[in-house]
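Why does residue order matter? Because the sequence determines the fold. Keep that principle in mind as you read this record.
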Amino acid sequence: MSHVKAGGSTKNNHKSPGQRLGVKRFGGQKVKKGEVIVRQVGATKIAGPGTYVSRNFTIHAAIDGTVGFRSVKKRHFTGKTVPRTQVCVE
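Structure:
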């Protein structure tokens, strides 16, 4: 009569790797066309002139130049304004 009694449950068995998000090129650094500047989940930073956003909200350089960050006020549909960081390439 061999059988297994209580198996119990496991905790801390999440083995997914980190997503490596964050700013990849900082203000004042040179970038080439197509380089990743920011990897993010959601639009915490918005694309300005000289940049574009891909499907997963990654901000890329659209032109060769220098990265810059500035604070702007973004208006929501309700009329509320919230501060956002705008990424631009000059």
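The CA atoms of residues 39 and 58 lie 5 Å apart.
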